[in-house]
Amino acid sequence: MTTQAQLGDKTFTLERFPLDQKNRSLQAWDSADEYLISYVTEHYPDCRSLLILNDSFGALSCYFSKQKLTVCSVNDSYISHQAAAYNLAKNKIPTTAFSQLDSLSALPKQVDLVILKVPRTLGFLQYQLSELSEVLAPGTPVIGAAKTKDVHNSTIKAFEHFIGETKTSLAVKKSRLIISQAQGGYKAADFPVNWPLEDTDFTISNHANVFSRDSLDIGARFFFDFLPQTNKAKSIIDLGCGNGVVGLMTLARCPNAEVTFVDESYMAVESARLTVELNLEDKFEQCRFIENDCLTGFERESVDIVLCNPPFHQAQAVTDHIAWQMFKQAKDTLKNGGELRIIGNRHLDYHDKLKRMFGNCELLGSNKKFVVLSATKNNGML
């Protein structure tokens, strides 16, 4: 699959990020991007300042920055920010009028137009539309885009409630636009959400774009039975931490450990920080909270234990390259004798992957849906 994208009247070289050398067939743009570009070019030729939300790999940022608009891109994904910067540089597009904000930053108040790739999570869409309702001047157009199958009645109702009168376009290449206009007046969406963690005295904090927003997910619940409980581990990483519940329980069981919470979602890292602060404030100084592309840049052979529930999708695509990256970088980061402990769906065959990479893999527990696996780093098995 070529990385050459024909967007509007321009051609770009666009890659997903981090680069997946094993599966270059995954495009860094889709038909919803193409539809947005075509619609905005036709209907808003005089637009000079543009706010983009959820530009997965920078396709929209590249096109509109090339048009010499002032562009601000907002995303909850650290990796999406890296992808946009990478693709802008690869296409030699100046960035003097381009800026990026994370999902928890205040939005700019004066823009001509907002375009939004509709996120998979309804709560996150509601949060973003709520934030827009607070800052947009009445009459500011807001154009959403998504695959037709992902535009539901709840999607339209969210636009109508938070932004204003809304209509949808005809479908083009299985994508559809949601066309709205700011009516003025702030409509609140109540995030973060706090909920009690069953069978504990803990309270978990979840921002809008964090997995399992209202209750403990079944994978984490099963993982609890196999978390480390030791005074020997000095350094532990909760990789892909989400709301931090795994790291929190580990910190309670390993009270002398330093725990690092890592996720590519800004909202996840902030949720983990709030979760620890709410429950183990006396241990807060033992923790670090980092947005990152897995363990890129972490010091080699510096950690005793890495805990992980690896994802098997990126954006809308099912892929195992993120899990591979997590396993490889965990091995690099672990001390000799250090342990990677993961939970995963049974069908994903992580046992084979870990055995090939580490030279060993132990099954700690399993049920009909999940397995918990442990691999130990042995520098004699490089």
From TrEMBL:
Compartments, as annotated in UniProt: Cytoplasm
Gene Ontology MF, one: nucleic acid binding
UniProt entry keywords in alphabetical sequence: Cytoplasm, Methyltransferase, rRNA processing, S-adenosyl-L-methionine, Transferase
Domain Methyltransferase small: 202-373
Catalytic activity: guanosine(1835) in 23S rRNA + S-adenosyl-L-methionine = N(2)-methylguanosine(1835) in 23S rRNA + S-adenosyl-L-homocysteine + H(+)
CDD domains reported in the protein's UniProt record: AdoMet_MTases
Coiled coil segments of this chain: none
RlmG N-terminal domain location: 3-183
Principal location listed in the UniProt entry: cytoplasm
EC number of the protein: 2.1.1.174
One GO cellular component term: cytoplasm
Chain's role: Specifically methylates the guanine in position 1835 (m2G1835) of 23S rRNA.
Recorded family membership: Belongs to the methyltransferase superfamily. RlmG family.
HAMAP family: 23SrRNA_methyltr_G (MF_01859)
This protein's name: Ribosomal RNA large subunit methyltransferase G
Organism taxonomic ancestry: Bacteria, Pseudomonadati, Pseudomonadota, Gammaproteobacteria, Alteromonadales
Gene name for this UniProt entry: rlmG
